[in-house]
Structures are given as C-alpha cells and as structure tokens.
Amino acid sequence: MQSKKPVKIKELTYRYCKEDPHSQVLNSIELEVSKGELIILTGASGSGKTTLLTLMGGLRTGAKGYLEILGKNIVSANRMELVELRKQIGFIFQSHNLLPYLTAQENIRVGLEVHKEWRRKEMSEIEERCFQLLELLELSHRGNFKPKDLSIGQKQRISIARAIANTPEIILADEPTASLDKDSARIVISLLKELAETKQCSVIIITHDNKILDYADRIIKLENGLII
Ligand SMILES: Nc1ncnc2c1ncn2[C@@H]1O[C@H](COP(=O)(O)OP(=O)(O)OP(=O)(O)O)[C@@H](O)[C@H]1O
Ligand SMILES: [Mg+2]
C-alpha cells in the first residue's frame, strides 16, 4: 500500500567514504514531500544538494536511515528494484545526457519507450505525444535536429521534455534553468509548476536562480548536510 507522501525521509545520513567520518555529506536529513508540491532546494556549493537528489532518485546507494520513495524504503533496495523505481521518476540534470545519434524528437520518444504502457501504443500516438511536448517547450521547429545542432538551452529543454514525457509521479531537477535564458527558464518552470498543480507530480528543484523562488510551495536550505 503506497503511503500518501511520495517522499518520506527520516534520519538519513550519507558518507562518500564509509571509513571516513569527515566524508559525511548528509547528516540526519528529515523531509516529507506531498503530491502536487513543488519544493526548491537551495544551499551553498558543496552543501549536499545533488547527493540528496541522487539518493532520492535511486541513482546512488549506501545511505543510512529511512528513505521512502513512492511507498518503498529504498535504503536497502537491490539493483533491479532501483531500476524499476528510476523509471517512475523524471530526472532533469544540467548535463542533458541526450543521445547524440538521435534527433530531438527521437530523444523524447526514448523517454516514453522505457515504459511498457507506451510501447504497447500505436506509433502515431507516441509521435503525437512527442509533438505535443516539443510544442510545450516551444521547440516544434527543432524536432528533426540532432543534439549537436541545438543550442545548450534547446538541448536542456529537450531533456526536460524527455523527463516529463510520461508524467512521472516525482520529478527531480538539478539546476534545470542554469543554461537557459530568462524566457526559456520561465517556460520550463511554469511547466513544472503546472505538472505539480494539474497532475499532482511532486517536483523537487535544486537551484540558485532567485527568479524561480516564487514558484515554490516550500523552500528548503541545506547547510553542512543538514536541512535548516
Ligand atoms: N564522488 C564523490 N566522492 C567524494 N566526495 C564527493 C563526491 N561527490 C561529491 N562529494 C563531496 O560531497 C559534498 C557535497 O557534494 P554535492 O555535489 O552534493 O554538493 P552540491 O550542494 O550539489 O554542490 P553544488 O551546488 O556545487 O552542485 C561536497 O563537499 C563534495 O566535494
Ligand atoms: Mg550539485
């Protein structure tokens, strides 16, 4: 039975080196995130933001404490369980990780085709969803371009389209607007806000960008591995 909060974290600690107490990056983190909530995570460089986000997304293991994501404590989850979990999460990173030999539209399609329910659908339906996402991010005119022919901001928007293609229950974004100009940043952040409000996605965004703080339901600050 899935609990109501998609994210429940209690006394979570993390060290990069098990033997070295000085490598402790997260120190007894307590955090709950509700459905439909947009949280902004701030803090100085090196305060542990990315570490926390990658733990929440099942991209990193070895933490101690309680880390419940979508109803399951993943602290001791195995590799297969983490693979399954990651499919239910939309990741947006600063390095966009687009596949260079695929076009923008095909890169978005990859975001759908990892899901069984989308693989069963007609190609026309998949294509329609890709077009819709390209339009949402104001990139309809770039669907056939390969990543090398897109600007950094356009690549970032394509990676965002891929991450949200299947409307994941949780979206984790690490500096999603860092490479974007003001208008593109606004498109992206309003889209994430809309997903939170209309689809009840839980959105957690790491940012230093003061312009987007207004969109947050809650702002959380990390300092020396602690939420303050
Ligand atoms: N693979 C690693 N091995 C050892 N230490 C690491 C590793 N990755 C990160 N760290 C350390 O953990 C601390 C937290 O790093 P993290 O990347 O979570 O910070 P951050 O808050 O995301 O910073 P930034 O705003 O610069 O991205 C830093 O002191 C960093 O040097
Ligand atoms: Mg970081």
Give the SSE string: EEEHEEHEHHHHEHEEE
| Mass-distribution shape | globular
Number of DSSP helical runs: 7
Q: Give the distinct bound molecules.
A: adenosine-5'-triphosphate, magnesium ion
DSSP, total strands:
10
Tell me the major beta sheet: 6 strands, mixed
**Strand residue percentage:** 15-25%
Could you walk me through the main structural features you see in this protein, from its secondary elements to its overall organization?
The strands form two sheets. The protein has a six-stranded mixed β-sheet with strand order 6-7-8-3-9-10, with helices on both faces. With about 230 residues, it is α/β, with parallel strands linked by helices. About 35% of the residues lie in helices and about 25% in strands. It has a domain at about 100-165. The longest helix has 18 residues, at about 180-200. A hairpin with a 2-residue loop joins strand 9 and strand 10 (about 225). The structure holds adenosine-5'-triphosphate (ATP) and magnesium ion. Magnesium ion binds near residues 49, 50 and 174.
Tags for this model:
4-stranded antiparallel β-sheet; 7 helices; binds magnesium ion; 10 strands; 228 residues; binds adenosine-5'-triphosphate; 6-stranded mixed β-sheet; alpha/beta; single chain
